[in-house]
Amino acid sequence: MADAARRLTALAEEVLGAPLPLRIRAWDRSEYGPPGTPVLVIRRRRALRRLLWKPGELGLARAWVAGDIDVEGDLYEALDLLAGSLWERGEGTPRSGLAALLAAVRDPRLRAAGGELVRLAGPGLPPRPPREEARRTSGPLHTLRRDKQSISHHYDVGNTFYERVLGPSMVYSCAYWGTGEDGATTLEEAQRAKLDLVCRKLALEPGQRLLDVGCGWGSMVLHAAREYGVSAVGITLSEEQAAYARKRIAEAGLTERIEIRVQDYREISDGPFDAISSIGMAEHVGSARYAEYAADVHALLKPGGRLLNHQIARRPLKDEEAYEVDEFIDRYVFPDGELAPVGRTVAQLEEAGFEVRDVESLREHYALTLRQWVANLQQHWAEAVELTSPGRARVWRLYMAASALSFERNRIGVNQVLAVRTPESGAAGMPLRARDWR
C-alpha cells in the first residue's frame, strides 16, 4: 500500500467537502497534499482502527495520545487550517482547530465511507486506550469522591512537571500582561500582576481572613499574606499540590498565617471569611452543582465581604440543551469539567445573594499565557516526557495550543467577576469610581 496518503486525503476531502488544507504522510511513507503546509503524520494504521472502533472524538484523541498521529511543523497553523476547513463548509459555530478535527471524524459521511477506512486500517483487534485516560467511578457527577478523583487525575502528575510548564510562579491560571509601562512583560511578572490584581479587587488589608478556593500550589495565599498582611486558608483536593504549597509556605516563614487543607469547598465549617478568591477552580464545579457552590461561598463570607471568581467561559449556544463536553478534554485533561457562559455565572451568583459589581474579561491575557506555557513545555520536552509519560506530554501540548487559539479567536473567554455579600444596610464598601480598587 504505497498510496495510503492519497487515499486518506480523498477520504478526508469527501468528509470536509473541501480540499484538505494539510499534507498527509502515512505509515507507508507516502505523502500527499499541498506543499509548504504542516504535515499530518499517520504513524500507524492502528490510528484508523481506533477510529473504527470508537468513531468520533474519543478514537481520534486516543490516536493522538498514543502517538499514532502527530503534526510535523507549526501546530498552531495546523489547528487553524483545520478550523478554516470546517468554516468553509458552513459550520454554524466557530470552532478551534481541535474541535474542527473532532467534528470531522463524527461526520456521517465518514461512517458512510467506512469500507474504505476498513481497507486502509487493516485487520486488528480494538486497540487498548492509552494509560493516560482518566479512570472514574460510576455514578453521579461531582460527588465528593468523584471530584477528588478528577482533580487528582489532572494535578497529581508531578510537581516538577508543572514547574517546567508554569515557571517559577506556579500559577495555573491566566496571567495579567502589561504593555511594558508596568513591567509585566515576562510570565513571572504577569502572574505576579494577576495575583496583585485579585488582592486589590478584594481590598485586602492586614488582619483580614482570606479563603482561597482551589489554592493550587499556594501562590495566591503566599502573595496575599506576604504583601497584604492577611491570614489565609487555601484548600485543594490535590495531595501533591498541598504538600508543595506547605513547603513553600514554610520556606517563606508564613506557617503561622497560612493554612493549607486538602478539603472540598462543601466541607468548610469555620467561616466566615473577610474575602474569598476562586481562581480557575469553578470550571470543575459542574452545572448541576453551581448553585450550591455559589450559595456555599456566599454563606462563608462576612456581610460586606468580597468574592473574586476567576473562571473560563464558553460562548452561549442557541440551544443550550445541545452543549456537550469535548471527549478529549473529558477523558484526558479535565474529567467532569464544564464551561458555562459568563451571563449564566453572573446570574447564579446573583441568585445566591451576591451583588455583582464588576466583570472584567481577560481573554487575550489567557492566549498569551498559554503560548508561554506551550513554549516552556517544548523547551523542556525531554524532561517533561521523563517526568510523566510521552502521552501525558502530548495531551498538554495539544490541549494548551488549541486553547490558546480558542482564546485568540474569541471562541472561549475568561472573566473575573467581583461580587459582594452586600449587608442589609446596602453599604457594599465599594469605591465610587469603577476599577479604583483601593
Automatic annotation (TrEMBL):
Its EC number is 2.1.1.-. One of its GO terms (molecular function) is methyltransferase activity. SMART domains: PKS_MT (SM00828). The keyword DNA-binding does not apply. It holds the Pfam family CMAS. SUPFAM superfamilies: S-adenosyl-L-methionine-dependent methyltransferases. Residues 161-405 form the Polyketide synthase-like methyltransferase domain. InterPro entries: CFA/CMAS (IPR050723), CMAS (IPR003333), MeTfrase_dom (IPR020803), SAM-dependent_MTases_sf (IPR029063). Keywords: Lipid metabolism, Methyltransferase, S-adenosyl-L-methionine, Transferase. Residues 121-140 are annotated as: Disordered. One of its GO terms (biological process) is methylation. Belongs to the CFA/CMAS family. This is Class I SAM-dependent methyltransferase. It comes from Streptomyces nondiastaticus.
